[in-house]
Write a structure and sequence with these properties.
Layout lengths: L10 H21 L4 H18 L8 H19 L7 H17 L3 H14 L4 H15 L6 H13 L3 H14 L4 H13 L3 H14 L5 H17 L3 H14 L4 H13 L6
C-alpha cells in the first residue's frame, strides 16, 4: 500500500520538539558572548532550525531544497556574527546575568560565584555587589553573630587581601547595626582597594554622618579619605573642599596637608 509521505508529525512529537528547541535556543543565547542584540539573534536562529526542519511536511525533495537554501544563510549569519572580544564591562554584565539566573533557581552558591566573577571584571558594577552581598547573606548570614563579630571578620578578610569577602562581611555588619560608622569606614576602604571610588565615597559619607563631632581625629581622617577618593574620580572641587574640611577639623592632619599641597601643585582645581 502506498505510504503518504506528506503527513505531519504527531502533535505530541511536535510539542516535545518545540519544547526542546526553545530550551536549546535559550541555552545558546545565554552562552553568547555578545550584547543583547546578539543574544536575541542567536535565540531566533536556534529556534528557526527546528521550525524549518521538523515542523513542515517532508515532501519529495523538500528537505534537500531547504538545506540548499538555508545552509548558506546559516553560514552568512555565522560569518556576520564575527565580532571583537567582549569588553570587561560586557564580561561583567554576562556573569551578573548568569548570577541572576542562578539566584532565581535558588542556587545561591553558584550565584555568588558568578557575582564575584562579575565584580572581578568590573569593580564598579553596583548591581553585582548588591546581589553578591544578598547571596552571601543567604549562604553565610547567621542570626547568632553580632554586628561587631561580622565587623571583625570583615577586617580579617581585608587584612588578608580578600576585599570582596570583606565587603560581604561588613555589609552584614551594617545590616545588623546601621549606626556602625566603623564598618562603613572599612567598607569604604574595601571598595577603594577595588578601585570602586563611587561606592567608597558613599560609604565614607555614611561614616562621616554617623561619626561624633567630638571624634575629631577620626572625622578629619574620613574627610581626608573622601577627598582623595573624589580626586580619583576627577572631582576637583569636592576633593579640595573635603581636604580643607579635614584640616579645619584637625590642623595637625599631615596626610591631609600633603594631599592638599599635591592638589595645589597639580592645579586640580582647573581641571573641572
Amino acid at each position: 500500500m502506498y505510504m503518504n509521505t506528506c503527513n505531519w508529525f504527531h502533535p505530541v512529537d511536535i510539542w516535545h520538539s518545540f519544547a526542546w528547541s526553545v530550551k536549546s535556543a535559550y541555552k545558546a543565547a545565554g552562552d553568547d558572548d555578545g550584547g543583547l542584540g546578539s543574544k536575541i539573534g542567536t535565540f531566533f536562529i536556534w529556534l528557526l532550525i527546528p521550525l524549518v526542519f521538523y515542523y513542515i511536511p517532508i515532501r519529495c525533495g523538500l528537505s534537500l531544497i531547504v538545506w540548499a537554501v538555508y545552509g548558506p544563510i546559516l553560514l552568512i549569519a555565522r560569518l556576520c556574527g564575527v565580532r571583537d572580544e567582549p569588553t570587561l564591562h560586557e564580561l561583567s554584565d554576562r556573569h551578573a546575568s548568569r548570577g541572576w539566573r542562578q539566584w532565581f533557581r535558588g542556587d545561591y552558591k553558584k550565584a555568588l560565584i558568578e557575582y564575584k566573577e562579575a565584580i572581578g571584571y568590573n569593580a564598579e558594577n553596583e548591581d553585582a555587589f548588591y546581589w553578591c552581598a544578598e547571596a552571601y547573606a543567604y549562604l553565610h548570614g547567621r542570626n547568632d553573630l553580632s554586628a561587631d563579630e561580622y565587623y571583625q571578620k570583615g577586617c580579617e578578610c581585608f587584612d588578608s587581601g580578600d576585599f570582596v569577602t570583606a565587603i560581604m562581611e561588613l555589609t552584614l555588619s551594617v545590616k545588623k547595626n546601621k549606626e556602625n560608622h566603623g564598618a562603613y569606614n572599612m567598607l569604604a576602604h574595601s571598595y577603594i582597594k577595588l578601585n570602586n571610588f563611587g561606592m567608597g565615597v558613599k560609604s565614607l559619607t555614611k561614616a562621616i554622618e554617623l561619626c561624633s563631632p567630638n571624634q575629631k581625629d577620626l572625622l578629619s581622617e574620613r574627610y581626608q579619605n573622601r577627598g582623595i577618593a573624589y580626586a580619583c574620580q576627577n572631582k576637583s572641587a569636592e576633593s579640595k573642599s573635603d581636604l580643607l574640611k579635614a584640616l579645619e577639623i584637625n590642623p595637625e592632619n599631615i596626610n591631609a596637608k600633603d594631599a592638599l599641597e599635591e592638589f595645589e601643585a597639580s592645579n586640580w582645581g582647573n581641571n573641572n
